[in-house]
Amino acid sequence: MCYFNTALFLDERNIGMEKIKMQERYARHLMLCEIGEEGQRKILNSNVLLVGVGGLGSPIALYLTSAGIGRLGLIDDDVVSFSNLQRQVLYGESEIGQLKVKCACRRLQALNSQIQIDTYSCRLSKENAESILSRYDVIVDGTDNFQTRYLLSDVSARLGIPYVYGAIREFEGQVSVFNMPNGRTYRDLYPNESELCSMSRPSLGVMGVLPGIVGCVEASETIKVITQCGELLSGKLWTIDLLTMQSSIISF
Fold it and tell me: What is the pLDDT confidence band of residue 194, given thresholds at 50, 70 and 90?
C-alpha cells in the first residue's frame, strides 16, 4: 500500500488556508505512489506550451490545468466558430467570433486560478518559434497541419525540449512522444517532409469525441514526462480507430 505524508507537502513557513486547499485539490495525485508529493511539486513547477487550442487543445488544456501545471502557454490565432462547438469543449455559443486564446484563458483561470496562463494570439512561424518554445519545458501538439508539426519538431529537438505529438482524422487518432534523451523525433516517424506536405488535405470530418480521447492521452503523456512516472510513448506510436475500437502501439 502507498502512504503519503501530507505534512511534508505543506510549506512549513507558510501554512494557511491556501496550502490546505492545494493539498485537497491534488489529493488524488498525492495518493498515487507514482506521482505523490514529489511528482505534484514537479507539476506545479512545470512550464508547458500548448500549440493550438482547438479540438485536441481543448481537452489537453482542461486536464493540464486541472492537474496543476504551474505555467501554461496557449498559442492560436483563430477565433471561435459554430462549427467548432461540436468538438472544441472549451468554448460556448456566446464566444463565437472571439479569439480562442482569450476565451480559453478565461475558462481555464475559472477552473484553476492558481496557475499562470500565457496567451499568444498568433500563428507559430519560423520567425517566432524558437523565441516562444525556449520559454517552456514541454511542448504539446494541438495542431492540424504537417508544416507546423515539422517546425515544432525541428525547433524543439534543437532546444532539447520534449514534444508530445497527437493527430486525428475522421475516426482515427495517434499519439507519440519525441525528443526524449536518446529518443526519436517526428522526422524519424515521418522522414519525407515534402511528400507529406504535398498530399491533398484530408477530409475535415471528425467524430466529435475523437479529439477528446486523443487529447486526454496527450495530457497523460505530458504529466508522465514531467513526473517521470510510467513508460512513455517514446519511440512508439499509439493509434486508435473508433469504428472498430482497435488500439495498437507500434515501435519505430
Answer: confident
Q: How confident is the model at residue 7 (pLDDT cuts 50, 70, 90)?
A: very low
pLDDT tens string 47-76:
999 999 999 999 999 999 999 999 999 999
Residue 80 has pLDDT above 50, yes or no: yes
pLDDT (0 to 100) of residue 179 = 97
Residue by residue, DSSP assigns the chain as: -----HHHHS-TTS-SHHHHHHHHHTHHHHT-TTTHHHHHHHHHT-EEEEE--STTHHHHHHHHHHHT-SEEEEE---B--GGGGGT-TT--GGGTTSBHHHHHHHHHHHH-TTSEEEEE-S---TTTHHHHHTT-SEEEE----HHHHHHHHHHHHHHT--EEEEEEEBTEEEEEEE--TT---HHHHS--HHHHHHSPPPP--B-TTHHHHHHHHHHHHHHHHHHT-S---BTEEEEEETTTTEEEEEE-
The whole-angstrom separation of Cα 101 and Cα 135 is 18
What backbone phi and psi angles, to 5 degrees, belong to 215? -65, -35
List the domains of the chain with CATH numbers: 37-251 (3.40.50.720)
Question: What does the pLDDT average to over 190-204?
Answer: 81
Distance, CA of 145 to CA of 149 (rounded, Å): 7
- Give Cβ neighbours of residue 68 (< 8 Å, ≥ 6 apart): 25, 26, 29, 40, 43, 44, 112, 114, 115
Reading the block at residue 73, the C-alpha cell is 502557454
**Residues listed for the chain:** 252
In single-letter form, the type of residue at position 234 comes to: S
Task: Extract the C-alpha cell encoding 214.
Answer: 486523443
